[in-house]
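To whoever is on call:

I kicked off a structure prediction for a single chain this morning and the downstream step that reads the tokens threw a length-mismatch warning. I double-checked the sequence; it's 232 residues and nothing unusual in it as far as I can see. Pasting both halves so you can look.
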Amino acid sequence: ILAVNMPIRQYPLILLFLFILGCTRSNDKEPIAGQPSQVTKGNVEEGKKLYSSCIPCHGTTGEGDENLKTPTLVNSDTWYLYRQLMNFKRGIRGSSPSDTSGYQMATMVNILKDSVDISHVVAYINSMPSVSLPALIAGDIKKGKRTYETICGSCHGQAARGNEKLNAPNLNGLDDWYIKRQVYSFKTGIRGTHPEDILGAQMIPMVALLTSDQVVDDVIAYIRLTAQVNTK
């Protein structure tokens, strides 16, 4: 409980502590309420057939399209991609009236009849080669590094590669414009406010510490740098 007379400048430290605590608790063996269990091994050939409905937006190689606001899929962690598709399927994501793109995604995921179909699609996406993403957002990398290490690094790792045990996805495989959009979604309550989105809710106080668009851009610029290093 925060003391009434606690200095405001200490609030970010308290929020950071609570988030780290949440990450640690997410490492228990028991599944998190509202989250799908371990990914079932999918069939690549079946996934290829099912993926045909994804091609118009995400492309034949899962490369995505910024103009359509569809992110690259092939660089995502398999476990994270499965979880988010399940979240769309279950209405945990895409249910906000303000989330136009999420609503469209939730509608398309309903073409997949169950978690088995989703596992097949994920297996097929995982079989595709990764792609190199252009840097579209400019920022101060040095400042971004400091901010990232203070706010994001404890869960997403020093090289932004993520940590499945902490339920923290790889960030340097994501489009920079998509990362910025998701930060905005968490900030505005478009994402992370569903009662069953336990992990998304943990992101809300963290993105609140990114106090301006420039700070967000700086962090993303640093993440893009780590992506370039990790692909060499």
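Update from on-call: the warning came from a stale cache, not from the record. Cleared it. Sanity check on the structure: Residues 57 and 91 are 20 Å apart (CA to CA).
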